[in-house]
Amino acid sequence: MTTDAARAHGAADESAAPAQRSGPDARHPDEHPAPAPRAELADPPAGSAAAAAGWMLVAGIILAAFNFRTAVTSVGAILAELRTGLGMSETVAGLLTTLPVLAFAGLGAFAPRLARRFGPRPLLTGALLTMSLGLIARAWAPNTAVFLLCSLLALAAGAIGNVAVPVIVKRYFPHRIGVMTTAYSTTLAVGTAVAAATTAPVDHLTGDWRIALAVWALPALIAIVPWLLWRPSAAAAAANPIGRLRGVSRSRLAWMMLVAFGCQSAIAYILMGWTTTILADDGMDAAAAGSMLGLLTIVQIPVSVVVPILTVRWGPRPVFLILMACYPPALAALWIDGGGPLTWTAMVLFGIGTSVFPLILTLFGLRARTPAGTSALSSFAQSGGYLIAGSGPLAVGWVFGLTGSWTVPFTVVGALAAVLFFAGLYVTRERFIEDELHPA
């Protein structure tokens, strides 16, 4: 047996029997969900060309993730100026706010096919270039129709990236899923928050909303650089090729992942879209209500850092139960004392609870044995899940318009949390999509 073969064989044996470990380095079986050859980028020798390629890939993933939501939150920050500048009606503005959900739901489904056809490097390079062009073009769009079309172009690139990155992590970092998911989910949250927080100040500084939107093409262009420099080795790519997994709709795991992803996203969208309105109705002034929403998003960032790592270290089930335990007291605090001192507690708990999102991103890798399985699971769950997510805020607004009361909307959030709980119990149990579709 050659040295390389022995190393791969040893890695597979180590992955196949994690339960035999003991001591402080013991880890949950979900950390190594399936025996697989160790790709050289997954654990490269220090100082080697493989190590340099590995770090270049890490940089590419992190920089790309920063850009996946900037096209969304940068618009929301200056929507009033944008509507005035383009003469946009309320109906079209409503379409603009739902366009990201439609893009993520419809266009993310094409990512697996594109990944198989072109490979990860051309796919992410092309997506980031498309995003840059879309962001620049929409900033100087002459009318609303062109603005929407260019926005869709930028959002399509983000949708493809959302699905492609978990596949790349599974392919090149099969033994580092928790750490890599932490890296890109945290960067995704940071990019989302930075775009939301700084677009309006840039608008005020320059006096031009078009410049404030166009600046977000710059980080997308910078993110292309690592992908142009990265040269994947044939051995690393051959160790975990991106194939095709058929019949995903027959998998109960895939449907439960779709439901879990959709419910957690719907809850997050409802909180992001309606929290300030609810608090204002409870007597809180606009600035304070905005700060409460800011508190929620700030709490999410450090929690998102530790959730994927703990998911791999402890196993998904205990982490999931801890996060879900935050929802009942958060809902109760907001219901009993909305606008009062308990609002702080509610926002902190909601910030922790909505960090189910990075846990589910981690499960895309842990619930598949192959990159093909991760690709199919991620695409199926996100495409359908975003349809559920988009309907959540619309349903809350519709119900509030009919009743004039927040009682039923609170019930909607509670019901979504209950469905998320039961779907989460299923997906956090160790199982693999390949085993459901191709039982032994």
TrEMBL record:
Record bears the keyword Ribosomal protein: no
Transmembrane helix listed as a keyword: yes
Residue ranges constituting the Major facilitator superfamily (MFS) profile domain according to the UniProt record: 53-432
Topology within the bilayer: Multi-pass membrane protein
Where in or outside the cell it occurs: the entry states: Cell membrane
Supply one GO CC term from the record: plasma membrane
Biased composition, class Basic and acidic residues, residue ranges: 1-12, 24-33
Q: Where is the signal peptide?
A: none
* SUPFAM superfamilies to which the protein is assigned, alphabetical: MFS general substrate transporter
Question: Which keywords fit this entry according to its UniProt record?
Answer: Membrane, Transmembrane, Transmembrane helix
Q: Membrane-crossing residues? A: 55-80, 92-111, 123-140, 146-165, 177-197, 209-230, 253-272, 292-312, 319-336, 342-364, 376-400, 406-427
Task: List every stretch annotated Disordered.
Answer: 1-45
Which InterPro entries did the record assign?
MFS (IPR011701), MFS_Cyanate_Porter (IPR052524), MFS_dom (IPR020846), MFS_trans_sf (IPR036259)
Q: PROSITE patterns from the entry? A: MFS (PS50850)
Example GO molecular function: transmembrane transporter activity
Q: Which Pfam families match?
A: MFS_1
| Protein name according to UniProt | MFS transporter, CP family, cyanate transporter
